Amino acid sequence: MISRHYWPHFSIDAACRDARLADALARAGMSIEVLTPRYAASWPEQIVHREIVVHRPLAAPRGAWSVGRYLKLMEAWLIENAHRFDVFFCTHCDDDVIAMVRAATVKSLRTVVLHSGTSAAADHVVWPATRNGRRIGWSLDRADAIVVSWPSIHRQLLAMGLNAKKLHRIDIGVPPTALAAHREDQPASNDSLRRARAALSHVNGDLMLHHDSYVVMACGEMNLLGGMMKLAATVPPLIDIWPDLRFWLVGDGRQRDALHNFFRHHSVRQNVAMPGTFVDFDDLFQVADLLVVPSATDSLESTLPAAVGAALPIVVADSPDTRSFFAGAEEAVGWFTADDTDSMRSAIRAALIDLPARRAWARSLRRKWMQHRPYQSTVEDYKHLLESLVPPPQRLSLPPIDGATKRSN
């Protein structure tokens, strides 16, 4: 597996998706190794995460002009270590696909590419504008399979001229969460909730809550596409209505300082926590009362399915991708018009006013989605695709044993 970001925290949704998928495939009996770049010189070149070897021999490119050298080194590493693999699987459609396809051609290996991202951050929107856009398109034409998770993107890739026979739809399933079964209509009275709140307050003092505080959580990258600044604009008027309302913005990015200054300017910094990143979903989802997905460009591939699996009430931006994910259960979540701050604020306010009913809808949605789109089905589809590309091992043809034939001395 070739991943540009591989670590299981909330800051980058694709990193959580890749870590969950690699772990699930390994548990399903497949041998998985991960190749990902180093983003700091102090990082070790190899680690083991959940019994999966993660190779980090190359430093991440720092600009467009360093990508060429990075791709040459990646191609050399793949060729040198190709004898250990049957399939190269790249979890994004960017420059890495070029090196992967070239190395696979040299070593006669099969290649699979996963289309990553949604809306304006989707791979097929980004790669044509890059320096190597044409080479990426050329490499995708030579890949053996391209995995697509969203029907709208499937249609757009077909319109771009990609081979329909190489496109494989694998929907994103909902992962199971043990704590979801313990969510009740009044979670503040739950002993497990109090323990979770106490544990989080010891991790970070900003996460300390009163007994009856409501928590609105959002996860993702703090950048222009992630929607965090639009969510921030809804915070002051909502706190005017609920003075003890808490917002947890989990993640990191270039707009972190701008967000911090915005909340201080509006005198609501004490109501907002920006605790960085986490590696465990369970305690956060157990404590939170509402998850907001402020943009259709982020948090749809890992955070959103995990929140459904945790039976957490959700308010989400309206888009073709989110509509397809909740098709048949649109009434179970709150909707707001994408890029409309007033609509987002109204949706959050309506969800908080009607929170007991929203919790009941969230539990119903979890039960329904665990039956119709469980994560195990996603893993089985990936496993079937990867195994179908590799011929079965050759077996020796042994002559039949004649029971009547006597063994010679």
Task: Describe the 3D structure.
This protein has about 400 residues and is an alpha/beta fold. The protein folds into two domains: about 15-175 and about 375-390, 3-Layer(aba) Sandwich (Rossmann fold), CATH 3.40.50; about 180-365, Glycogen Phosphorylase B (Rossmann fold, 3-Layer(aba) Sandwich). Helix content is about 40%, strand content about 15%. The protein has 15 helices and 13 strands. The strands form three sheets. The protein has a six-stranded parallel beta sheet with strand order 10-9-8-11-12-13, sandwiched between helices. The chain has a four-stranded parallel beta sheet with strand order 4-5-6-7. Helix 2 (about 65-80) runs parallel beside helix 3, helix 3 runs parallel beside helix 5 (about 135-140) and helix 8 packs across helix 13 (about 340-355). The radius of gyration is 24 Å and the shape is globular. The termini are far apart. The model is unreliable at about 185-190, about 395-400 and about 405-409 (pLDDT under 50).
Secondary-structure element order, N to C: HEEEHEHEHHEHEHEHEHEHEHEHEHHH
The CATH class of the largest domain turns out to be Alpha Beta
Question: If helices are DSSP runs of H or I spanning 4 or more residues, what is the number of helices?
Answer: 15
Strand content: 5-15%
Strand order of the largest sheet: 10-9-8-11-12-13
Helical fraction equals: 40-55%
Give the helix/strand class: alpha/beta
Main beta sheet, described? 6 strands, parallel
Averaged pLDDT:
89
Integer-rounded radius of gyration:
24 Å
| Number of strand segments | 13
Low-confidence region ranges: 184-189, 394-398, 403-409
Can you name the CATH architecture of the largest domain? 3-Layer(aba) Sandwich
- Into how many domains do the coordinates divide? 2
Shape: globular
- The CATH fourth-level homologous superfamily of the largest domain: Glycogen Phosphorylase B
